[in-house]
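Lecture notes, structural biology module. Today: joint structure prediction for complexes of two components.
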Amino acid sequence: MSLWPLVAFLVMLSPVLAVGAASVVGLAGVDALLSALGVVGAIALVVRVSMHGSVQITGDLFVVDRVAAAWTVFALVVVLAIRIFSRRLLAGDPQRQRFHVSSAVAATTGAALFCASNLAVIAGIAMATSIASAALVGCRRDGVPVARRMAMVLLGGDALLATAVLIIALDTSITGSRALGQITGAPANIAATLVVVAALVRCAQVPFHAWLPRTLVAPTPASALLHAGLVNAGGVILIRFAPLVARSLSATILGISLATLGMVVGAAVMQTRSEVKSGLVWSTTAQMGFMLVQILVGIGPAAAMHLIAHGAYKSNLFLLSGSTIEHDAETHPPITMVQHVAALVLAVVMVGAAVASTGYHLSGFGGAAALIPVFAVLTVHAVLAGRIGLPRRAARSTIALVVGLTVAATVYLALINGFESWLRLPEAIPSGARILTILVVVASILGSVLTSGSRLVPDQLAIAIRARVLAAGRRPAMQAATLVSTKVAASAHPQLCDHAVAVRSGAS
Amino acid sequence: MTNTPNLIHRVDIATLVDVAQRVVPPMWGLDGFVAVNPLGGFEDLPFETAALKAGDLFGAQCYLASNVDRSSGSPLITTPLSHIARAGLINAPRMPSVELTRRGTAHVAELADMYLAHWCASVPCGPLHARAGHAGFFATWRALATHDPDLRRLAGRELANRVCALPVVAGEAVAVLLQQLGIAEDDAVSYLEAQLTRLPGWAAVMARRVVGGQRHAMVEYVAVRLALERILVDASRTPSCVATEHGGAPDLSNRAAQQLAAEHAYRDHLLSLLAANAHAREGAEVISDNNRPSAQVVCCIDVRSEGLRRHLEAIGPYETFGFAGFFGLPIAVRGATATAAVASCPVILDPKAMIAEYVVTGSLPAPEDRDLAHRSFHAAKAGATSGFVLADASGWLMAPRSLLQAAMPGFYSRVQHAARKLMGRRVRTRFALDVNSVSATDGRDGDGLSVDEQAQLALGAFTAMGLTGGFAPIVVLCGHRSANQNNPYRSALDCGACGGHAGGPNARILAAICNRAEVRARLADHGIVIGEGTWFVAAEHETTDDTVALLDVDDLPVSARGLLENVERDFARAGVANCAERALSMPSSPLAWRGASRSNDPAQVVPDWGLARCAAIVVGPRALSAGLNLERRTFLHSYAPLDDPEGIVLEAVMTGPVVVAHWICSQYYFSTVDPHAFGAGSKPLHNVIGRVGVGEGLGVDVRIGLPLESVWFDGHPVHDPLRLLVVIDAPAERLDAVIARNPVLRRLFDHGWASVAICDSNEPSGFRCRSRAGTWESWNSVSPPGMHRHLPSL
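The predicted structure, tokenised, for the full assembly:
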């Protein structure tokens, strides 16, 4: 018997073991040390898996394949960073131990979900991650009502997933995620739809998104962990079920529509928020929409990479969310149409060069892979638009920027290429992937034009849209504020709960 | 004043709002945090009355809760009953209940709060703003409100009619709304006060905008608030309730007595130390006069300077002075890389001139080229369709970055530093002092000051700090700043006298002024003779790790630089000693503590205790307090009582630094006694709102005051909330005259917002204390010396 299943098991458990050992020994350093060992173990797993194939733990209940190993490494690195960070950040908080414990449990359930292979195990672990993330959000007493509501919403989504698993089991007696591509017929359609809705709930997609903005009740490191890993659960589930979902056009179209809506609404609300963390939360809704779209049009490997990169990106932005005032406030002059067009042309040329030089392959995915270069063009465009038309003295730095962005685009596309061929995910491309991709691109560009107050939109329409975007951003916050009553807020400072509360409740 | 409808005029509205907004002092924002007394608008009431009224309006408590141990780890203050009886508080009459007229139900008020707070933090129009010509806050709301699905659901089809019926001009709208809500003119101020204190943070932000020149900001805000109230009151099924009556006011006399007792205990402790010191020094006077100091050091009055000065004096023959850290320069400063100037003087002053920093040697990149990577990243992050690939492409670098910043912040910042050094050459900069001195390098010019103005400012500074002769070969002007990472409240740790900015620029400017021959000639005309062998040098005290950097040293002649080496070395030694002393009070084990690791650490919530535990300001010659360990709790302002028979300098000190010290003390006091109402919330929950302030968790309002971790740590109070004690070495008559001339001071001292004691050599105890009625009573040390509180063990 090989040692690898044991290694994999210990790696999954490493966050919990680390926190447990640290609280027994009474040294925070032990936590960091054991968590770091977990990372080392996960890296060893990646090496082993890419050389000798998947590691099975307890039959096929948990299988560490390439994607699971990659996800686990990433998750444990980010968790390690967050946990070291939070030891100091929360030093002044009397309720910090609850955070340390719940974050470790959440990390372990997350790692277990990455590795889960049996359908019933996936559904069960999904529920465990829901409860663990709710516990993380409720790690301060004033967050408990919000956490309770969040757990209800997430478990509702998980119930749909469990139902889908049950339908599949009753219909075909398939229990492993590997054979999902073989299922056909009406039950498959229903199961696929249920899985898609479950993933939308877990990824905070409109109209199931309201739980995510409310999680700001938790301290910053809890948000960092939530946005790095736990919102991704929907993506993990959908990647595992992708072969099933790709066969159901109705489920695919439903998912793509709502995920695209999430991309548009999330980005639009993000642009109206001046609160840093609220902006990050809404951006997560948009990013998760993008990830789900990638899976649903069939480019799962790109989504698997987005899951990792976005998690690292967002958790870092959360941890450093106090730094935003360190830079000069900038006022941007409005960008003219000429600048926009020039930047777009330049961006197409730059990304085109990157596509050509990396041999980024479009053919394998029914045209869906074009999604990545198109959005890369939009990104380059956003960076360059403000710089075109600057005085000549800025020319040198603009050239440096163009070169730098082209190199970055090349490296990025090469990275996706390599990751895709290394991952060997089962193919899950829906019929009509090309058309669906075009529709997504058109819808998201149209949405961004309509919501950004561009000159192309008539004034009255722009005002009406803006009013609705503001309302969309307000609703979760208002519902949350009613959840957290004055009384609970006062109990956040238990030292002071004598007459202030009496005065406060009497005054209103 | 009649009560007939339709008669509250627009002009009156401006006045009404002006009067009502006094309940919320302006909040200065995160890029220049300035301490204010959160109850500044109540200073015309006695403290105890204000505590009741504000407690009611803000839903706050204004005394430390009775179950909090002020000084964990040391003997509790047991105050003799005589103290309390003397203050006449035991049988003080209870205040009548403060009656407020509030319309609408609690639910309506809460809904309006949430809606409005969210609205205030929104970027409502983006590019639309300029195009649609929506100038004001109210006009923007009015344009968007008719489309608001939430309001439409609440108010039904009438919404559009109702909103459109409101006048476009905010002032007129307020008049109409007050009338529609049925508020009589006599009640209007208290009604508006109640409305403003529902969201004290946002009201304070608007008050700041009013001070900053946007005259209508508050009226616009009130208009939106009332319009919401109107819509919500009409929409709510419950009939709008009139005049909510409160139960009797809580009896706080017990708390007031405890507070006074704590203050008396501290006063007794401080005064007995000072008295013992005076006694000990009587004989030593002659010897110290013969010892000419090798250098004079002028530090900020900030409490953190006390430690540095004490350690420096212990090392060598240094004479130190305390002076407001803006060094008397009412200026705005524009850094070489900054796009705009910032006021580098107390907020009570208007900058008289803008001084620009320019590059002497080396070159800075053009503004378009600076921070290219950072700005590109943010351009992509802010876009609606550009964030997706950005996250994908940059995320790979972010994971190691998080890990390095968390585990090895010192290493990370060294790498960052080295990278920056590699990119840009070292530049030498100076300030353009003179009028019309356009710097050749970047062509941007400041206002500058004429030589006469420069001399006048220097003269004012020297007179005010009592340094008018006997200059040492080296005079160090030492400002201060705090280095810390990822801290929205970083400016709260910088120099308050410089408007919440670093103190280095002002020190550099005054040093440069005083080294000019033209200025010295003019000073000599006024009797201040600075010898040719005397040089002024600027310095900056970094309060996180207590390093002191000497600035612009290469302007000095070689002869002076030799002396500077000693000064630099002694500063370093004093810094190490001060840092070690501070380490004992920092919230981690002393062994693991290094100042430098705190200043680089993005996870650090307590880079520096700031001005926590501040309690008193001592105005007088350094001899009064020299050699005493005042535990970094006192502001120290130098004052030479013999040189100021008219009390002109005293008046400037009392109306300037003393008032500012009172603000700081009050800010710390109220943030400590009710962190929920007057504090900025816990740092791990902060949600930075632009540059305006922070929200906490899901809380709706922008927070005022100081972060929780600055005053409470791990469930224990760090700050000992005391009202300011002013100890002055000046005759009572002179002080009486100054107080009588200044209503600000009368309010503070007559109403118990601060207390004052003076040195009096005729008294056996050495001190006299002023009662609220203005009489002077001799101070009797009741508590034995030595029975004072130590730093809380953390």
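Point to remember: The mean pLDDT of chain A is 89.
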